[in-house]
Design a protein that fits this description.
Length: about 160
């Protein structure tokens, strides 16, 4: 497995604690990593559940895990990319607060790991288009991507 995919960017997130709790900025319009704003949404994964694979043709995905932990995998399916067919695996969440920026054409997905539900916050560059979704999917156990999620039998994945 390679540790880089062309165009994937990682931003280390800073947690600022005080006696009231803590604050963590995720994405700012003056960040080098920022392109444009589409929407913000939150999704979850129960422990052991995989949500994969998908990619976009138009948008960049920016995401982090704000509660729990998740294993994130990325696969470069862009034939014209210098990192074509590279795989990346990252562990994102409370123990590793990072923002992952995934360019168009790179498959990605995640698995909830640990014992708690993982809360995933996504800030894509475009809003979801219900009539023509910019989302192209493969099942998590596809033969097109050489990655083993360690799927648990009987759980709903995809």
């Amino acid at each position: 497995m390679k540790d880089t995919i062309n165009g994937v960017r990682i931003k280390k997130l800073n947690v600022i604690p005080d006696e009231r709790g803590w604050l963590m900025e995720i994405l700012r319009c003056d960040d080098e990593i920022f392109e444009q704003f589409g929407q913000v949404y939150c999704t979850t994964a129960y422990p052991g559940v995989v949500k994969a694979w998908h990619y976009h043709k138009k948008q960049t995905d920016n995401f982090t895990c704000v509660h729990g932990m998740m294993k994130v995998a990325l696969y470069d399916a862009r034939e014209d990319s210098p990192t074509y067919k590279n795989l990346m695996e990252l562990f994102v969440g409370e123990k590793n607060p990072i923002l992952v920026s995934v360019p168009a054409g790179v498959y990605h997905g995640f698995k909830g790991i640990g014992t708690e539900t993982a809360f995933f916050v996504s800030i894509p560059t475009l809003p979801y288009n219900y009539s023509e979704p910019d989302e192209f999917r493969l099942p998590p156990d596809t033969d097109e991507i050489p990655y083993d999620w360690g799927l648990a039998p009987g759980l709903k994945h995809g």
